[in-house]
Specification:
single chain, alpha/beta, Rossmann fold, 10-stranded mixed sheet, two-stranded antiparallel sheet, 7 helices, 22% helix
Length: 313
């Protein structure tokens, strides 16, 4: 186990800068391996193994990797502030050498690999749960990682509390997702995304739904009223003007326990927007707000707060 300050995004740079920012916040970095090599698990400084603690997994986009995705979104900067476990694993390389996740039929297993990323990530969650008393499990994904976050919600709704997808999408056919338990979903999407279109499109022969349809599909899984609530104030998710660049649409009325749908639409936003410095904090705020029943109408109760994991002796 090594001590890492939060004064940089990349682990190597963090180690180098340790001597230059002694007053920085610190977290523990614990290497774990669930079958594909070591993954760094960031552990908040005050954590004890028996204390129920949320877990956040960050999934990279096609041709990227975990380190680069963390550098882009910077969730490590809020690990201690919010007190969650955090990891950013890698997918496997396809025939062109690009790392990917075998997510939905649309994205992005372009060469028909049999790799079971859903099983791998579930195994990673369960392995972490052997040493830490996990409460909620949250998955954040960008592009291909966003598609994978929905695949995980489909396959493992018994373990996943919420997903946040930037420029991803769920299955076009709801039947391909099966019959998942309710899961909270946050779709974040730019209207000028030229890679994964806001309105939906196809990647080769396989198509994906648009941002609105994605959220409505999961709101339906959660039994929510599909009348959109647009009363929430706009957000600032992208650096530069305008300040309020993102509208908020929610489906959170009459939902079953543990389910809701939220869409953050970045007006004129692109596939990889220049994210605001507090983007990770805003997404984490969303995750943690799901435990506040007052955010939802008609007596809706959210979240699965009981620890489900077995703590190793």
């Amino acid at each position: 186990m090594r001590r890492i300050p939060e004064c940089s995004r990349l682990a190597a740079i963090l180690l180098f800068l340790l001597a230059f920012c002694p007053d920085a916040l610190a977290f523990d970095v614990v290497p774990i391996d669930s079958g594909r090599g070591m993954v760094d698990l960031l552990v908040p400084d005050a954590n004890t193994p028996t204390e129920p603690t949320p877990l956040v997994l960050l999934l990279h986009g096609y041709s990227s990797n975990g380190v680069n995705q963390e550098a882009y979104m910077n969730f490590s900067s809020v690990v201690d502030e919010f007190g969650f476990l955090y990891a950013y694993p890698d997918g496997t390389a396809d025939a062109t050498g690009n790392q990917f996740w075998n997510a939905t039929d649309a994205c992005c297993n372009f060469f028909g690999s049999p790799v079971d990323d859903s099983g791998y990530l579930r195994g990673l969650i369960d392995l972490i749960g052997l040493s830490y008393a996990l409460s909620d499990v949250y998955i954040v994904g960008h592009s291909n990682g966003g598609f994978m976050s929905y695949r995980m919600a489909c396959d493992h709704s018994d373990r996943i509390t919420a997903v946040a997808s930037l420029a991803g999408a769920t299955f076009l056919d709801p039947a391909d997702c099966g019959s998942p338990d309710p899961v909270h979903v946050l779709q974040i999407h730019g209207t000028n995304d030229g890679t994964i279109l806001y309105v939906g499109a196809c990647l080769g022969p396989n198509c994906y739904p648009g941002a609105v349809a994605t959220v409505e599909q999961w709101a339906t899984f959660g039994g929510c009223d599909l009348v959109p609530d647009t009363s929430a104030p706009d957000l600032d998710l992208v650096q530069g003007p305008p300040e309020d660049d993102t509208t908020v649409t929610r489906y959170a009325t009459d939902c079953s326990d543990g389910g809701s749908g939220t869409l953050w639409t970045i007006i004129d936003g692109v596939h990889s927007p220049n994210l605001a410095s507090d983007f990770s904090r805003q997404v984490t705020d969303y995750f943690f707000s799901l435990q506040d029943d007052s955010l939802f109408s008609d007596g809706f109760e959210s979240g699965n707060t009981a620890a489900w994991s077995t703590v190793a002796p």
